[in-house]
Amino acid sequence: HNHWESLLHQRFPQHRLVVRNLAWAADEVVLRPRAEGFGDPDEHLTFSKADVVIAFFGFNESFAGPAGLASFKADLDAWLTATLKANYNGKGAPRVALVSPIAHENLRNPHLPDGSANNRNLELYTEAMRELASKHGVAFADVFHPTRTLFAGGRGSFTMADWLAVAMR
């Protein structure tokens, strides 16, 4: 995610920021498969002395559809409660921001889903994240709605899935 980090450092050079991406593709609030002995997220956040935690959840969980929403909300609520009590940097609780998943882009490829069903689920999970961010007083970035609008504009493909489609040919 070097482009985002570069822009962050360019915008805030006076802060001498240190960025650590501790996420892996497919991470969920309560499911983060790692090799035995890897350590849990709290150990890594403590080692990194995290002041700010930016959490990207909801995409993988959304595949459970409406039936999984209550579980997702309970898991995220518990995670927020615990994280906001943590002291990773030795100076107090971190600031937390939640970022919604992006929309599912329709690549108009007959071998791939159009994303309409997935987007209905993603919208539900995005709204759940918004509610919990408000409840806990943490920042929330809704990137689902702007990306859904962008993708609907038909000005080309934006997601990595188009590379997959080319590879499948």
Question: Would you mind describing this structure in some detail?
Answer:
With 169 residues, the protein is mostly helical. Helix content is 42%, strand content 8%. The chain contains six helices and three strands. It has a three-stranded parallel β-sheet, covered by helices on one side. Helix 4 links the parallel strand 2 and strand 3. Helix 3 runs parallel beside helix 4. The protein is globular and about 50 Å long. The model is unreliable at 165-169 (pLDDT under 50).
Keywords:
single chain, 169 residues, mainly alpha, three-stranded parallel β-sheet, 3 strands
- Count of DSSP-assigned helices: 6
What structural class do helix, strand and pairing data support? Answer: mainly alpha
How would you characterize the largest beta sheet? 3 strands, parallel
Mean pLDDT: 90
> How helical, in percent, are the residues?
40-55%
Spans with pLDDT under 50 lasting ≥5 residues?
165-169
The largest sheet has its strands arranged as 1-2-3
Principal-axis shape: globular
End-to-end distance: 28 Å
What is the string of helix and strand elements?
A: HHEHEHEHH
Oligomer state equals single chain
Our estimate of the beta-strand percent is 5-15%
